Amino acid sequence: MSKVYDILPDAAARALINNDQYLEMYARSVNDPEGFWAEQAEKFVTWFKKWDKVQDNDYFEGRIRWFEGAKVNVSYNCLDRHLETRGDQTAIIWEGDSPDEAKHITYRQLHEEVSRLANALKNLGVKRGDRVCIYLPMIPEAAASMLACTRIGAIHSVVFGGFSPDALRDRIQDSDCQVVITSDESMRGGRRVPLKANVDKALESCPNVRTSIVVKRTGGNVAWKEGRDVWYHEQLAAASPDCPAEEMDAEDPLFTLYTSGSTGKPKGVLHSTGGYLLFTAMTHKYIFDYHDGDVYWCTADVGWVTGHSYIVYGPLANGATTLMFEGVPTYPDAGRFWQVVDKHQVNIFYTAPTAIRSLMGQGEELVKKTSRSSLRLLGSVGEPINPEAWEWYYNVVGEGRCPIVDTWWQTETGGILITPLPGATKLKPGSATRPFFGVVPALVSNEGEVLEGATEGNLVITRAWPSQMRTIYGDHQRFIDTYLKTYPGTYFTGDGARRDEDGYYWITGRVDDVINVSGHRMGTAEVESALVLHESVAEAAVVGYPHDIKGQGIYAYVTLMVGVEPSEALRKELVQLVRKEIGPIASPDVIQWAPGLPKTRSGKIMRRILRKIAANEIDALGDTSTLADPTVVQDLIENRAVK
Ligand code: PRX
C-alpha cells in the first residue's frame, strides 16, 4: 500500500474546487460534454463570435475540431481584455541569469510591445498563416514574439535554444519558416551561448528565410548580413503601437512545436487556436488553484510545450503574474530556485523531477537558508517522479504545507490531462492521480483489449479534448498512423500506466522507443541516425537506462566498421557528432563498443535485450531463443558499462 497524504486544510479552505465539485464537474464533463465545454468556453475565453458547434471529433477519420465557426484571438485574450482591470499589474516577472538582473513588465507594457512587434512583422511581409521560427533564450521577448505571431495569425515554431544549428535548420525547413526571431547571445549559468551564430549557420541551408530579427541581449559581437538581419529594438521603434488583433477561426493553426517520436525525424505537432486557449487557461486556473494576485513560476523553457502552455498562454489568459527565469538551478549556487522564490514571493512553483533530484543531491542546507514562506503549491511535470524525490519536495521544500500536483501530459496533449487538484485530491507520492475534466483515460493490453479495474497496460485516451494536437505539420497521415491507428478509436499516448484500487493512475514511462532524459524527450532513432553518420560506424542501437538524476540516460551500442579499432578519441568524436547533429541534450552518457548487436533471424534488433543489459538486469533478459547469434549477447554482457 502506498502512502496517502490527506488534502491539506489550508489548501482546501481556499481551493476553487473541492472533491464533491470535482466529482460532479467530472461526471458532467463526460455525460454532457457539449454543455460542459460550452459553459467553460464562455467562462474562460472572450470570443469575437460564438461557435456553431462545440465539437466534431472522429478518431477513426482523424478529425478533431472544437468550437468551429467561432472567432477568437489568443493575444487579445492574453492582453487586451486585461487592460481595463489590470493594465498596471505585472504580467511577466523576468529573473535574469545573474541574480542582479530582474524586471517587471505590466500587461500594458507587454500589450504595447506585442502590438509594435506584430506591426513590425506585418511590415516585414508576414501574413496570416505564415510560419515564424522563434529561437530565443528565456527573455520576455520570447513571450512577446509568440504573442505577436498570434496577434496577426502567423504560426510560430519555437525551437529550444539548446538545439544545434543542424537541428534548427531541419525544423525551419520542415515548416518552411520565412522569418526567424533570435538574439545575439543567451546567458546560461554565467556563460554566453552564440544563438545568432547558430542561426547564421542554419540559414546557410534555408534560402527561404528572408529576415532574421535579432534581439540585443548581451551586446556581444555578431556577424551581420545586410538585407536579412534587422534589430528587434529598431523594428519596434519604427512600428506603430496600434495593431488590432486578427479575428481567427477557432480551428486556425496556432503553433507547431517539434517533438520526438519512436521513428523518423522529429514531427511538427500542430495545435489550433480556440480549444488550446480554453484548455490551457482552464487547467492553469484549476490545477494550480490560481487566484488573482498570486505569483506563479514555471521553470520550464519556452522551447518546450510546458513553457508554451504554462509560462505564456494559460497564465496570461488568466491575467496572472508569470515568472520567467533565464538561468539554471545551480547558478550561482544550487539554492537559486529558493532564493528566487523568496525574492519574488512566489506562491506557486512548477518544476521537473530531474531538477528536484539534482537539488536533493546537494543536501537540505541551501534550501533551509531560505524562507519559502510565500509558497503555497508545488507542481511536477515531465517524467515520473520517484516517491523519494516527491517526499523531499513535499517535506523539505514545501515543509509539509504545500500540496504537490504531479501533472501528466505531453506535447501532443497541449495541456495537463491527469493530475491532482489541490483542494480535491488526496495525494500518493509518485501518482499523477485522476483525470482532469473531460479526459477519459483507459488501459489496454498489447492486443487492444480494454482492461478494467486495478491493472496495468498501455495508456490511451478514449475521446478528444479541446487542446489535443490536430495534426503533424504537413503530414496528416503520419498523425493518424502514429496516434490513432495503434488502438483504433482511441488516442495512444505511448506511455504505460498502472491504475490502482482507488482509480489513481501511475505513469510507468514510455512503452515505445522514446526516451526521457532530464525531462527532454528524444527518439532513440534520432541519436542512432546521428551516430551512423560517422564513417567509422557500421551500426548503432540506442536505449535509455535508469539514471539517478536524469531519470533516463542515453546508452549507445556502437558497431564499428571492419578494421576500425575503438579508442577514446573515437568515443569523443561520436559524442561531438551527436551534439552537432542534435544538441548537447542528446549526448550519449555511455558508448559501448559492440562487435555485434542482438538480432532476430529476420534482422530486427532486439532492443528489449539491449535495455536489460544497459540497466544491468542480466537475470531478466527473457527469451533469447529467437536470436540469430546468441553469442553476441554474452560479449555485450561482459563488456557492459554498468555492473
Ligand atoms: O512519458 C511521459 C512523460 O513525458 C512524456 C511527454 O513528453 P513531452 O511531450 O516532452 O512533454 C513533457 C511535458 C508535458 C510523456 O509521454 N511525462 C510527462 N509528465 C509526466 C510524465 N511521466 C510521468 N509523470 C508525469 N507527470
Automatic annotation (TrEMBL):
Record-listed N6-acetyllysine modification sites: K604
Keyword Transit peptide carried by entry: no
Annotated positions binding CoA: R188, G189, G190, R191, T306, S518, R579
Keyword annotations: Acetylation, ATP-binding, Ligase, Magnesium, Metal-binding, Nucleotide-binding
E.C. no: 6.2.1.1
GO biological process, one term: acetyl-CoA biosynthetic process from acetate
Signal peptide: none
Gene3D superfamilies xref list: 3.30.300.30, N-terminal domain of ligase-like
Function statement: Catalyzes the conversion of acetate into acetyl-CoA (AcCoA), an essential intermediate at the junction of anabolic and catabolic pathways. AcsA undergoes a two-step reaction. In the first half reaction, AcsA combines acetate with ATP to form acetyl-adenylate (AcAMP) intermediate. In the second half reaction, it can then transfer the acetyl group from AcAMP to the sulfhydryl group of CoA, forming the product AcCoA.
Protein name: Acetyl-coenzyme A synthetase
Gene: acsA
